[in-house]
Amino acid sequence: MNITAKNKVKIILTVIIVILFASFFYGGYRIGLNQAVTTFPEPEEVWAKEPGVRIDGATAPSVVRLADGTWRIYYTVKEGIVSALSQDGVQWVKDEGVRLENKSKGSDQALVSGPTLFTLKDGGFRMLYEGSDAKQNTFAIFSALSTDGLVWTREKGVRLTDKNQFGQAIAASPNVVRTAQGELFCYYGDGNTVKAAISKDQGVTWSKRTLTGFPQASVDPSVIIMTDGVWRMYFAVSESTDHLLNSRIMSARSTNGLDWSVEKGARVVADKKATQVLDPDIIMVSMGKMRLYYVQLDKGVIDGKGANSPVLSIRSAILELK
Question: Whole-prediction pTM value?
Answer without folding.
Answer: 0.84
